Here is the input.
Amino acid sequence: MRAWTSIFVLVVLLGVTGCGSKMSGAVDQSMDTQCALDSMAYLEEMHDLAGGGGEEDRSDGKVNQTYCNEMSTYLDEGMLGSANKDELKKLLDELRKAKDKEEIQRITGEMAGLIVLPEKYMSRFAKKYKK
Here is the structure.
């Protein structure tokens, strides 16, 4: 009987850990949605920092190349769902070279408008630039 109890506990633990993410409504996003959320967060942070916002004032017109590289990977691997990939790649190239704060904000806003997210996951930033 003790062996059955141990097996039952093991199965329950495996079920909870293996299916835990499926139980949570907030984590049931597809990989495309998660990559789109990450990209939107990157764009929003760069947009805010270019405008002098955010916790740190790094509003010196520099673009976070790590974020650009991450978004490039998402685009190359087709992980942004139905987003306009060609236009996003073009804008991403412009963003990498951008030096002017207003240009960074313009490009990040345009890119945000091209990323497709379900309404329930959209931040104010995403809604502002939604096309």
